[in-house]
Amino acid sequence: MWKWSAIVLGTLGLVMAIASVYVPRLIERGTNINIPHQPWVVGPKAAALHETLFIADLHSDTLLWKRNILSRSSVGHLDLPRLQAGNVALQVFSAVTKSPAGQNYEENTADSDNITALAIVQMWPIAAWQSIYARASYQLDKLYRIAADSDGQLLVIRSRQDLENLIAERAAGQHVVGGIYLIEGAHPLEGNVENLNKLYAKGLRISGLTHFFDNAVGGSLHGVSKQGLTPFGRSVIERANQLGVIIDVAHASPAMVEEVLALSSRPVILSHGGMKGVCDSPRNLDDELMRKIATRGGLVGIGYWDGAVCDVTPNGVVKTIRYAIDQLGVEHVALGSDYDGTTAVMFDTSELAILTQTMLDHGFSDQEIRQVMGENAKRFLLENLPDA
């Protein structure tokens, strides 16, 4: 009898091992889409300017996927070789820890979760199959492992000094890339502020508040209640301010954004999104509320997918960037791709020079291009990251 049990267990283990290799790749190939297009034409002026930029992207979900990002892949939107090919200096890596079935921009409950099955098939630690906190912790550990195996090409940024060192290395001609860790929604805290302390101690530096559903912090832009901060949510904002964790209001309900802006002693970011005046999508906040984020010193990352910009061509993305500059001021506009976030885009991170070319085509000044492509993010992070 034990022999049959061993055979069954061995067969199941083999099936799981095979599934863990092929199933995540198939899922990602069908969700993180590179829309087919002819090679983008980048002229010599744009190419030369692009090589002098400090480029920063405020949001990608690459850590979610079982893919070696130290090697160039034909799947997804981002890996280290493609970051370096696109001259990216700083990438914010988000941890997605829970996502409802049939997620949409209008209304979702927290009763279902797509990430559980993905965690199992990708053979994450068993603790991460059930604990949302464990999923966040695992993805942060994953970022450290990638950096450790990168031969110094990827550095985890946790402090102002880390960022200053990265800037110095880039200025010296090194194509090293910095990575900052973000949680997409504060549900990994599991209703306990002490978990914010623990994640901060491990290296968390940016925290979202909600994702596609309401949580213990308050209402999601895509949830049921549309409420503002809960008492627990207020305690999270206060503790984040004390620690130096930057608050990200992407996916937060308008009521929550208003309350965060009133409560927070520090400026916030909206890491990835668009402008409703250009793209009237339920994913985007009203322009008036976006202006309040900017007025209080915040930063808005413009995405590249349809829910953010409606038109995913380089022209469409640049149209939103120009509108954002006109509404918010150039110093408050940045890039927030949402690469690898189950999005379909017209250019991956290796092709970012097409944004430089398109901005030049639309009459942007070199200084405007520098600011939007990364100088604004660099300045904001130097001002708001904690000391070592």
Characterize the structure shown:
The protein is α/β, with parallel strands linked by helices. It folds into two domains: 31 residues; 342 residues, Metal-dependent hydrolases (TIM Barrel), CATH 3.20.20. The protein has 15 helices and eleven strands. The strands form three sheets. Strands 2, 3, 4, 5, 6 and 7 form a six-stranded parallel sheet that branches. Strands 8-9-10 form a three-stranded parallel sheet. Strands 1-11 form a two-stranded parallel sheet. Helix 3 links the parallel strand 2 and strand 3.
Show the helix and strand layout:
Blueprint: H1 2-31, E1 33-34, H2 44-51, E2 55-60, H3 80-85, E3 88-95, H4 115-121, H5 127-130, H6 132-148, E4 154-156, H7 160-171, E5 177-183, H8 193-202, E6 206-208, H9 231-243, E7 246-248, H10 254-263, E8 269-273, H11 287-295, E9 299-302, H12 306-309, H13 314-328, E10 333-335, E11 344-345, H14 353-361, H15 366-384
Parallel strand pairs: 1-11, 2-3, 3-5, 4-5, 5-6, 6-7, 8-9, 9-10
Helix pairs in contact: 2-14, 8-9, 13-14
